[in-house]
Amino acid sequence: MQNLWYKNAIVYSLDVETFMDANGDGIGDFIGLTQQLDYLSGLGITCLWLHPFYPSPNRDDGYDVMDYYNVDPRLGTLGDFVDFMQAAQERGIRILIDLVVNHTSIQHPWFQAARSSSSSPYRDYYVWSEHPPATDPSELVFPDAEDSIWEYDEQARAYYLHHFYKEQPDLNISNPTVRDEIRKIIHFWLTMGVSGFRVDAVPYFIKNVVELVAQYELESFLVELRQYVSARNPEAVLLAEANVESQSVPLYFGNGDRMHMLFSFFVNQKKFLALARQDATPLAEGLQQLPDLPRSGQWLNFVRHHDELTLDQLSAAEQQEVFQAFAPDPAMQIYGRGIRRRLPPMIQNNRQHLELIYSLLFTLPGIPLLRYGDEIGMGDDLSLPDRDSVRTPMQWSDQPNGGFSQAAVEDLAKPVISEGDYGYQRVNVAAQQRDPHSLLNWFDRAIRIRKQCPELGCGQLHLLETTEPAVLAHCCSHPSGVVVAIHNLSHHPCTIALKSNPYSNLADLFGDQSYEPLQDSLTIPIAAYGYRWFRALDIVGYVRSNQKGTN
Ligand code: NOJ
Ligand code: CA
Fold first, then answer.
1. Ligand 1 centre from 201 Cα, in Å?
2. φ, ψ for residue 483 (rounded to 5)?
3. pLDDT tens figures, 115-167
4. What is the C-alpha to C-alpha distance for residues 424 and 128, in angstroms, rounded to an integer?
């Protein structure tokens, strides 16, 4: 039977380049990250997702890979990586790495060979056309930088396909030799001990844009990827970056024979619409639209990550509502569809509101993703270009450069936030470790309690009907128990009346404050932006025949 460890993992993501610089050159490195593993272990995370750390010209912050079998020398060596893996293993932290195989860097030797001659054995690693079709603007991922997904290459005397920057030519996934290269990359890193991959840009693998090359059942590529992974390590997982509508979700999970996990892009957009309206209805509707997953499937919930907060699945009017609430200035928006801010500045650093949003992250069906700095409430730097606004270095202390690096300020890979409410002098790990009421200590508790509620990761979701549209009431039930959670998205306190509640004996587990124990499980008081997690005591210890979980 497969080990479903990931169904209750606590995932943390970071970029080695901006986490901790051990040798003082201004660039984070594997030795620095290894030194900070005790911090991550203390926080309670169980799985770490590393952004690309491969040699790269860095046109797209490492998502343009030049060599799949190495560590960028700016960040360390393969030897440092092996030491890091061992230190993570000793602490019980599993490692996921980015698998970026929709495209390479233009500087990858494959592309250099491919462009040099039409008879090169590498020519068909990429997608070429002499007369490419016009690009529909909706196909552009980076509309500020590109106006076509085809670029003419003088040397090749042909156009090549690139969905992302022109420096990222798309690989021809329909070519079996390319697939074999991908298999080798997967096997290499599994042999190095990683527990799986965050697979970049998955929908682009299977987009039907390659009529020009031999048509192959591209969907079957997802099955093949799973086979490559499971053959080498049955515990390893594939986490797909696939921002797709709910109807397309089954294509990615298959029968439990494709991806193990997907980022919950769809629900996240509905969640931000609900937060903007202070009305839980869009979120509840979004959750209801999700298809059932195969037993081995899981959602990875997130609030923000390293890219823009995309709103592309909302209507134009809904997008405007979210922009108005959280990013009214055009400088806070990006690509006409997203927000390039971290969460605290979006909500004026309102602590109650922050806790509410992270409480949702921990309790919605699936597992939570934290991004470095979320746990201390780091802000953004809108003076930096596009998504760099949310990629500033980790703030460890009030020492120069926030304790991230001993280098001169001008040598830092990315500037540290050093002014205002979010400057490292005010927002840093060291100060929050000492303060029992800090956000960091809140995360510590939330993670501890979340780990005691595996039902949230593998139970069956039921929405409970309430009289208050601002409140989301849901429960996750599993043969091992039931957890009920109530979230008030509005800044007004209220008392909700549940239309029905199968559980009559609810004990508070966690909340925004210490509430009086419930007298009646149908009437639940909740503060402004309040949240309450309960365990249903009436069903502990026996299995309800009508409550089959997914695991
Ligand atoms: C998704 C990554 O998250 C993003 O940062 C990158 O620009 C694109 N894929 C292209 O690799
Ligand atoms: Ca360094």
1. 7
2. -115, 130
3. 999 999 999 999 999 999 899 998 899 999 999 999 999 999 999 999 999 99
4. 48
Q: Give the pLDDT confidence of 41-82 residue by residue, as tens digits.
A: 999 999 999 999 999 999 999 999 999 999 999 999 999 999
pLDDT in tens, 501-548: 889 899 999 999 999 999 998 999 999 999 999 999 986 543 444 443
State which CATH number among 3.40.50.2300, 1.10.150.130, 3.20.20.80, 2.30.30.50 fits the domain covering 176-301.
3.20.20.80
Q: What per-residue confidence (pLDDT) applies to 218?
A: 73
Ligand 2 centre distance from Cα of residue 393 (Å): 12
Q: Are strands 196-199 and 237-240 parallel, antiparallel or unpaired?
A: parallel
For atom 2 of ligand 1, which residue has the closest CA?
200
List, as one string, the DSSP characters of 155-207: TTTEEEE-SS-TTSPBB-TTSHHHHHHHHHHHHHHHHTT--EEEETTHHHHS-
Ligand whose nearest atom lies closest to the CA of 32: 2
CATH dotted code for 109-161: 3.90.400.10
Residue 267 one-letter amino acid:
V
Q: Just list the catalytic residues.
A: 200, 241
Written out in words, the top-level CATH class of the domain with range 458-545 is: mainly beta
DSSP 83: H
Ligand 1 neighbours by CB, cut-off 6 Å:
60, 63, 100, 164, 200-201, 241, 307
Nearest CA to ligand 1 atom 3: 307
State residue 549's pLDDT score: 39
Tokens of 147: 């106006």
Q: How far is the CA of 52 from the centre of ligand 1 (A)?
A: 10
Structural contact between residues 457 and 550, judged by C-beta atoms closer than 8 angstroms: no
User: How many angstroms separate the CA atoms of 289 and 8, rounded?
Assistant: 22
Query: What pLDDT, in 10s, does the model give residues 335-388?
Result: 999 999 999 999 999 999 999 999 999 999 999 999 999 999 999 999 999 999
Q: Tell me, yes or no, if the two domains 1-99+349-451 and 176-301 fold the same way.
A: yes
Name the CATH topology of 1-99+349-451.
TIM Barrel (3.20.20)
Asked whether the beta carbons of 357 and 343 are under 8 A apart, the reply is: yes
- Distance in angstroms (rounded) separating the CA atoms of residues 427 and 393: 12
Residue type at 104 in one-letter notation: T
The ligand placed nearest to the CA atom of residue 302 is: 1
Nearest residue CA, atom 11 of ligand 1?
A: 63
What 3-state DSSP class applies to 387?
helix
For residue 64, report the distance from its CA to the centre of ligand 1, in Å: 9
| For the chain, domain boundaries | 1-99+349-451, 109-161, 176-301, 458-545
Distances (CA, A) of 459 to 80, 247, 295, 532: 39, 22, 10, 18
Q: pTM of the prediction?
A: 0.96
Q: Are 70 and 78 in contact (CB under 8 A)?
A: yes
Q: Tell me: the pLDDT tens digits for 182-229?
A: 999 999 999 999 999 999 999 888 775 555 444 456 788 999 999 999
